[in-house]
């Protein structure tokens, strides 16, 4: 399953947070963004329980992470510029 994870970060810790996220095997895409959030990570896991463990045991342990907002991907219609056939 894919989860789009928006992350609020302490700006003075941003570089360290990004480096730690870059090294997490569950993070398949990682973006520094403008707007309400500071970082957007796409997380790939096998289950909701595995995602829960990633958030509790890995993500929230990173110094400077103030909070998250997550979206579970229900269906992919287009990826990498290509339509996904059903």
Sequence-ordered SSE layout with sheet pairings:
Elements (H helix, E strand, L loop, with lengths): L1 E8 L4 H9 L4 E6 L6 E6 L3 H11 L6 E8 L5 E2 L2 E2 L3
Antiparallel strand pairs: 1-3, 1-4, 2-3, 5-6
**Major β-sheet profile:** 4 strands, antiparallel
User: What count of helical segments does DSSP give?
Assistant: 2
Share of helix, binned? 10-25%
The quaternary structure here is single chain
> Quick one: overall form?
globular
Taken as a percent bin, the fraction of beta residues is 35-45%
Strand order of the largest sheet: 2-3-1-4
Describe this entry's structure for a reader.
With 86 residues, the protein is of the alpha+beta class. It is 23% helix and 37% strand. The protein is built from 2 helices and 6 strands. It has helices spanning 14-22, 48-58, and strands at residues 2-9, 27-32, 39-44, 65-72, 78-79, 82-83. Strands 2-3-1-4 form a 4-stranded antiparallel beta sheet, covered by helices on one side. Strands 5-6 form a two-stranded antiparallel ribbon. A hairpin with a 2-residue loop joins strand 5 and strand 6 (82-83).
């Amino acid at each position: 399953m894919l989860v789009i994870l928006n992350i609020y970060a302490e700006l003075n810790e941003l570089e360290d947070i990004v480096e730690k996220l870059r090294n997490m095997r569950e993070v398949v895409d990682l973006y520094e963004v403008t707007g309400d959030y500071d970082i957007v990570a796409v997380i790939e896991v096998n289950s909701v329980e595995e995602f829960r463990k990633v958030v509790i045991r890995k993500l929230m342990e990173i110094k400077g992470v103030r909070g998250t907002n997550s979206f579970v991907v229900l269906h992919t219609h287009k990826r990498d510029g290509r339509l996904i056939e059903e």
